[in-house]
Write a structure and sequence with these properties.
Layout lengths: L1 H6 L5 E5 L3 E6 L3 E6 L15 H23 L6
Antiparallel strand pairs: 1-2, 2-3
């Protein structure tokens, strides 16, 4: 997370806690999703409250998830 603050996420990772899922965004191309009940918070987790950084992370997450949705719609995951 420390690198994320300096590099605006170029090589960092971040976690989004939703109501039902936890999304981990790692690097520029890797996303995982797990059930909220399966997630264990680390004592090293940093909670971000900087509005500018939150806006940047929101945009980054939307782009990564948008790419995933586009690939699904194009049938990449079809047999």
């Amino acid at each position: 997370m420390h690198d994320l603050r300096r590099t605006k996420g170029v090589s960092g990772s971040f976690i989004v806690l939703g109501q039902h899922r936890v999304f981990k965004f790692i690097g520029n191309d890797y996303v995982t999703a797990s059930a909220l009940t399966d997630y264990t918070v680390s004592s090293q987790t940093v909670v971000i409250d900087d509005p500018q950084l939150l806006s940047y992370l929101r945009d980054r997450a939307q782009k990564m998830l948008g790419s995933l949705i586009q690939e699904i719609e194009e049938g990449v995951f079809d047999d």
